[in-house]
Amino acid sequence: MAVIDQAIESWVQRWRQRLDWPLRLCWGVGGGAPTRCWDLGVFEQPRVVITVRDAAAIPALLRPTLDSLGEAYVEGRLDVEGDIDDVLELAHTLVRRAAEDGAGAPQPTLLQRMVKGFTHSRKLDREAIQYHYDVSNAFYAEWLDPAMVYSCAYFERGDEDLASAQIKKIDHILTKIRLQPGQTLLDIGCGWGALVLRAAQRFGARCVGITLSQAQYELARERVAAAGLSDRIEIRLQDYRDVEGTFDRITSVGMFEHVGLKHLADYFRIIRARLAPDGWAMNHGITTTDPGDGETPYGGGRFIDKYVFPHGELPHIATVLRTMQEGGLEPFDVENLRRHYARTLQCWSATFEAKRERLRAMVPERIWRIWRVYLAGCAWAFEHDQIALFQVLCRPAGRSAQELPWSRRWIYDAAPGG
């Protein structure tokens, strides 16, 4: 204990000199009331209270990174009290200053990032998707919009509520791909079916939606049947690599993050092979802002990979455009919706916090902690340009330029149905 006491005292003294912050650190190993607390600033009430529940959390404090602090919290070695936005602000302040002092953990090497790219297979991708999405449909329904759209919304004016912004996002995509009545649409990674339902109901399309999540598959099929659209929409539990046939339009929303950097060109080749010669496709996905396709800084990417999206990899938009061209597709329109995803995640996180005790009772404590820090952390990362979200509209390469619209006006025209 003497060594631990000395380590904590040293940590407190170091940060008191560098951090004028209303933070209280407490020692409460064993789950009981704290036996001792230290204040790192002058204040009446702390904005954040960190309670050490396990001595194994000490290294995370001494060499703080987003993944080490996140792991200590998720595994119950640390308890944290305070507004989640204050907690994130404190965490980023600690890890940034620790990195400046050389006290943070090193970033992964190029070799480590290259080796990671070999981990993708049908089996591993299916397991990764099911790990993330099969938590429970009821859990997701508590903090998503009523349509359960689990991707970046589109705030056309900026004052929309989340449900309206999610419908506008779907319409924005379907209008961009110029979807017409009677056309066939493949939605890769269809989630709980919101996009294909909208495409059939409002745009008159015939749709196939595919997912690797058993929970999503079952609920999406129920929703299609309840809407009376089983004759126009087919939901499949299927890998994108196993789809056959051609489609007039293809959408992929929030899915290609699971493909892997080394497989992006093949992924786009498959989309090209499934796309009609005069078709249009839309890839809507998260990207890193590191031109070298690196992880988000300070260990945020490592935390996501370990706890949230196993085997996920984010390319830079330059890599997306290059591999899209390698896959036989011509990028036609590129739109950055980073600001929109920051707002979306802020809405999700706010709802999660408002319902946190109800959600806590629905899933194991560890899962609850993962999703709590993940939603708030991603909102912070999008807000501060550590990650971005791009919609890339594309079509088969090599087609005549005379077939292309002269302007982008059609993207912002009213969609069919008014």
TrEMBL record:
Enzyme Commission code: 2.1.1.-
Catalytic-site annotation from UniProt: C378
Domain DUF7884: 41-92
Pfam families found in the cross-reference section: CMAS, DUF7884
Enzyme class: transferase
GO terms for biological process, alphabetical: lipid biosynthetic process; methylation
This protein's UniProt keywords: Lipid metabolism, Methyltransferase, S-adenosyl-L-methionine, Transferase
Domain of life: Bacteria
InterPro entries found in the cross-reference section: CFA/CMAS, CMAS, DUF7884, SAM-dependent_MTases_sf
SUPFAM superfamilies on file: S-adenosyl-L-methionine-dependent methyltransferases (SSF53335)
GO molecular function: methyltransferase activity
UniProt family annotation: Belongs to the CFA/CMAS family.
Record's protein name: Putative fatty acid methyltransferase
Organism, as annotated: Tepidimonas alkaliphilus
